[in-house]
Specification:
- The protein is mainly alpha-helical.
- It is built from two helices and two strands, in the order E-E-H-H.
- Strands 1-2 form a two-stranded antiparallel sheet.
Length: 70
């Protein structure tokens, strides 16, 4: 039986599918982190280097939490 969570994500209910989702999330977060780190934030109006650094740190923390679940 599948259930929708409050975030709108579907819980498949099987461990193998959950692992696959975690691997996909890990890869997506790693790609996003790489793009984030390669962005020249000085060229983005209204975003300071400190803000961008904080976002990158949060993305890394999120990836680490996903990896703990693998």
């Amino acid at each position: 039986m599948s259930m929708k969570t409050s975030a709108g994500l579907q819980d498949s209910g099987t461990e193998a599918e959950s692992d696959d989702e975690n691997i996909e999330a890990d890869l997506a977060l790693s790609e996003l982190i790489g793009q984030h780190e390669s962005t020249d934030w000085s060229e983005v109006p209204g975003i300071s280097a400190a803000e961008a650094g904080a976002w990158t740190a949060r993305l890394i923390e999120a990836r680490d939490r996903v990896q703990e679940g693998l």
